[in-house]
Write a structure and sequence with these properties.
Rossmann fold; 2 domains; 12 helices; four-stranded parallel beta sheet
Length: 296
């Protein structure tokens, strides 16, 4: 008999509402501030639609984020504990946020109140669609009969090494302001007027990987990254995610589908949009990709 357990994540995993329903997961909302108002980024965008958010962002409205507190996590986890439901929470990278640490503090308190419920948090060391891919594969494992402990161990052992993030951002200023990337790296990238390509390291931090001049070089780098690192025999799924740059995302998808190895394996390529919390740091125009590969 399969072990029954819930999988939770946070809204920085940036999969779309339909995918959330299909995966049967629960999503902890995270907060962002715009025009002096605090909003919760729910996975279904109930407080602010993506169209409204990107319209405001385009007008240079100031946007910021704040860390989810231990108390907020406690409130989100409590209903599962009360119902006696074992759960695994897969968090946003600890290399980019204190989210994971806050969840651990909440779980410590809950375990004293509900000692018979198995509750764990695991650090995805991933972000946005990369975190989404970790969650997607964890749900796939659960569906195939993996236990909570087996799923947790897979995330701990595999995610930081094999979930490859390819990230193209038009401008590094927002990431620098938010402390997500070294200001010196941001200045160099912006001054050279190049397309900065970022990666997420094994420690879950962002790093400037390469600098490309023009879109043609950018897309070539994306194709080369996939064809050189992808491990479709283990997990073939690919996620392309973007910050209000659908045409660029579709172009990348088309280019990938033209590659012989992609034609051979016919992977499930998912398209998703970056939500307000991550987009507040990337700005508009980001185009990104995540897949299971040889190394980050």
């Amino acid at each position: 008999m399969k072990e029954m357990f819930e999988i939770l994540t946070d809204s920085t995993f940036d999969l779309m509402p339909k995918q959330v329903d299909e995966l049967n997961i629960s999503v902890v909302p995270m907060s962002f501030q715009m025009e002096g108002v605090n909003y919760l980024h729910y996975h279904d965008f109930r407080q602010m639609s993506l169209d409204e958010f990107y319209t405001k962002l385009k007008k240079n409205n100031s946007v910021s984020t704040s860390q989810t507190t231990p108390h907020q996590f406690y409130e989100q986890f409590l209903p599962f504990a009360k119902e006696g439901k074992n759960f695994l929470y897969i968090s946003f990278s600890s290399g980019l946020s204190g989210t994971y640490d806050s969840s651990i503090l909440a779980l410590d308190q809950l375990r004293t109140e509900f000692p018979n419920v198995t509750m764990h948090a695991v650090d995805s060391l991933s972000a946005s669609g990369g975190e989404g891919l970790v969650v997607y594969l964890a749900c796939k494992m659960r569906k195939n009969g993996a236990t909570l402990e087996e799923t947790k161990r897979w995330v701990e052992q595999k995610a930081s090494k094999h979930i490859v993030h390819w990230v193209s951002i038009d401008n590094l200023t927002q990431l620098s302001r938010g402390g997500r990337i070294n200001p010196v790296l941001a200045s160099v990238g912006n001054l050279l007027h190049v397309k900065p390509l970022l990666c997420v390291t094994e420690k879950g931090t962002l790093d400037l990987k390469e600098k490309c001049r023009g879109n043609k070089a950018k897309y070539k780098n994306a194709v080369d990254t996939l064809t050189q690192k992808w491990l479709p025999n283990e997990h073939s799924e690919i996620i392309i995610f973007h910050a209000n740059a659908k045409e660029d995302a579709l172009k990348l998808k088309t280019l990938l589908e033209e590659q012989e190895i992609v034609k051979q394996y016919q992977p499930h390529i998912m398209l998703s949009q970056i939500g307000p919390v991550i987009a507040s740091h990337t700005g508009q125009g980001a185009v990104c990709m995540a897949f299971y590969g040889t190394e980050r």
